[in-house]
């Protein structure tokens, strides 16, 4: 009669396991707390505040970018004004600088309807001049402590160019190795004369 006890035979169950199950209470499941219902007016107000914050951020970023653009334009204007002259008269000069070559290149007027290019080569202490109405380049050496101004250089080279036209023919420079890269490129297709 005792053969099936505890072995799981049908209709019979161990009394000790019944007691263990009875002592433990079943777990209690509670509802998770819910957020209180937000009224429709409050939802609309929160949405309006969020949109207002986004709009303020967009406006601030726009003004910052506009300010950056205006400051760049102002810096360019100051550069143009300083090249044009302190009194604002004369034609504005165009300038290109090369840190690597240590040169400054200016486009200047040469007569009524012509232009010329002046190159300051600070590493070789040379100034070069090329008029686009004449097929010649002129160079001169300068003192490292006393670089002449653009107007003085232009006037000097134009005077030298007029002397050349009158008949003072000098021999062109044979050895172009004394010239820097920028002046060599500027004067590559024309003879070079010392001024």
Task: Describe what is shown at a glance.
With 195 residues, the protein is of the alpha+beta class. It has 4 helices and 6 strands.
Note down, in words, how this protein is organized.
This protein is an alpha+beta fold and 195 residues long. It has two domains: 42-75; 78-194, Enolase-like, domain 1, CATH 3.30.390. It is 39% helix and 17% strand. It has four helices and six strands; from the N terminus they run H-H-E-E-E-E-E-H-H-E. It has helices spanning 15-23, 40-84, 150-166, 181-186; strands at residues 94-98, 103-109, 115-121, 126-131, 137-141, 192-194. A six-stranded mixed β-sheet has the order 1-2-3-4-5-6. The longest helix is centred in the N-terminal third of the chain and has 45 residues, at 40-84.
Biggest beta sheet summary: 6 strands, mixed
Please name the CATH topology of the largest domain. Answer: Enolase-like, domain 1
Q: Low-confidence stretches at least 5 residues in length (pLDDT < 50)?
A: 76-82
Report strand %: 15-25%
The strand order across the widest sheet is: 1-2-3-4-5-6
Fraction of residues in H or I helices: 25-40%
Domain count, please report it: 2
The protein's oligomeric status is single chain
Pfam families: BRICHOS, SP_C-Propep
Function: Pulmonary surfactant associated proteins promote alveolar stability by lowering the surface tension at the air-liquid interface in the peripheral air spaces.
Organism: Cettia cetti
GO cellular component, one term: extracellular space
